[in-house]
Amino acid sequence: MKLLNKGAYLRAGLITLITLIVLNIAGANPAYAVQKKATDTSVSAADVTFTDIPTAADSIAIRKKQADSVKKAEAAKASKAPAAASKTAEKPKSLWQIFIEGLLGGFTAVILPCIYPLLPLTVSFFTKKSGSKSKAVMQSLIYGVSIIVIYVTLGLLISIIFGSDALNELATNGIFNIFFFLLLIVFGISFLGAFEITLPSSLANKLDANSDKGGLAGIFFMASTLVVVSFSCTGPIIGTLLVDAASKGDRLGPAMGMFGFSLALALPFTIFALFPSALKTLPKSGGWLNSVKVVLGFLELAFALKFLSNVDLAYHWNWFDREIFLSLWIAIGLLIGLYLIGKIKFSHDSDVKYLSIPRTFLAIITFAFVIYMIPGLWGAPLKSISAFLPPEATQDFNLSAIPDGSGSSSAAAPSAAIPASIGERKYASNYTRIKTKGLDAWYDYDQALQVSKALHKPILIDFTGFNCVNCRKMEANVWSDPQVFSRIKNDFVLLQLVVDDKAELPAAEHFVSDYSGKKITTLGGKWSNLEAQRFNSNSQPLYVMLDSDGNLLKDASGAEIPTSPANYDIASYLKFLDSGVAAYKK
């Protein structure tokens, strides 16, 4: 193997950023329990508060019969709560998370073939044109700030055009998910070299002509020219960031994502203007730049599958199972590995005469990840990527064991203990694809109250969703613990309310929400309205414990752990469950 040049180690660090993009597109932190106030996040295992909650929360007729005091309390709560009860997105990502993802995307864009070769050219231009180092640095700063202004303006326009409500609803909207899926497929194919996505050349020519004016305006138009001519490389990254920020962030998400992206893009131009001699340490442009682009194209294809899975689950198509999803990811992973070691090549690629250290390590990581995914085809939980995968219940062939070792998926209580008058589990056929193996949940609020009275057990409501990545992560990392699983199975009546189910309610059950003023026509909308109106929350997962009359057993506003490692802490979740059982026994 030939001796690497001294810039190879820098190249290794830059290329490795690609692998971080997918890993950082994870969901927000889960909500462990209902919040008493939107800003209350302290832990309090002993605090037990009893609050009356009507047994038919989502029935208009019964609401009208409620006591005047309850109506006033609900009206007061509705006036302080978020605007729309029909929002069903999982807990939004923080602006900090979106900024970091944008930053990683920007650093990745820097090492793509449309931008990387421009670094020395642009810095040399400022150095020679200005005549002095101080002037060159100032012009580079203005150039960098101009790039940031252009991209942040784009993010703000996205927010203004769609608005916060529309952005929050993108995560479960079928049309938008299909659109995003197709968009990312196009981006991926573009990165693989089939074609280039470019803006009109006339626009680039006009901006380039204006850049000759000189002064601040000329520098701004230079930055605009860079944005336009590099769009074939940056467009797919920008599109992916905007899709993710818009569907999982708040109103300022797209702007914050673009700020992180543009900051990472602008920093190298400014830094190398300060230290021009450092340009000599950069690895020379070459075939490795296109390799970065191709690998990123494969990752775009892999990420696109998540949006297709979202639609499949929410609309009950029932054909995109977990093993199909995994098979496609395994195939994409194998292609990446074979590409990295030079066994496959695209039209724009140069020959790989030898394996460099960065290629070797990336190939090892890729093949190891593929091997890790293979047992998932037979039901292995794959906890590290469970948030991205369809639920385990979609697996046709599942050899995984039930966590408590019972070897049976039967509920804790025999069916004979449940009165025949309660009837069949309502809506159960809708949720076979998200059913947790070994747990028999109920899916209707009123029916769960009846079961709770018959079995003398408290209710654990799990506000969940087909497209909720944090719900899948909780189920794979916390519910799979034998102690947690045993408590849920034996000590509670599990009520799972899926807030993004698009199944239509019978016409007789349509109603106008007293909370949001919107007409509720879907089953998911019914449970989303219940979550927002009764529990002042619209994020998932949300866990609420009730007694047999529908009263809140524990004001568990403190059950959410703010620090990331503790969000999926089994001991905290056990304490939360135990406090509910203790309150019920009192």
From TrEMBL:
Subcellular location, principal: membrane
Location of this chain's protein in the cell: Cell membrane
Cellular component terms per the entry's GO annotation: plasma membrane
UniProt GO BP: cell redox homeostasis; cytochrome complex assembly
Key words, A-Z: Cell membrane, Cytochrome c-type biogenesis, Membrane, Transmembrane, Transmembrane helix
Gene Ontology MF, one: protein-disulfide reductase activity
Keyword Kinase: no
Residue spans crossing the bilayer: 95-119, 140-162, 174-195, 216-243, 255-275, 287-304, 324-341, 361-380
Membrane topology: Multi-pass membrane protein
Pfam families xref list: DsbD_TM, Thioredoxin_7
Keyword 4Fe-4S among UniProt keywords: no
Residue ranges of domain Thioredoxin in the record: 407-582
Protein name: DUF255 domain-containing protein
Source organism: Mucilaginibacter rubeus
Lineage: Bacteria, Pseudomonadati, Bacteroidota, Sphingobacteriia, Sphingobacteriales
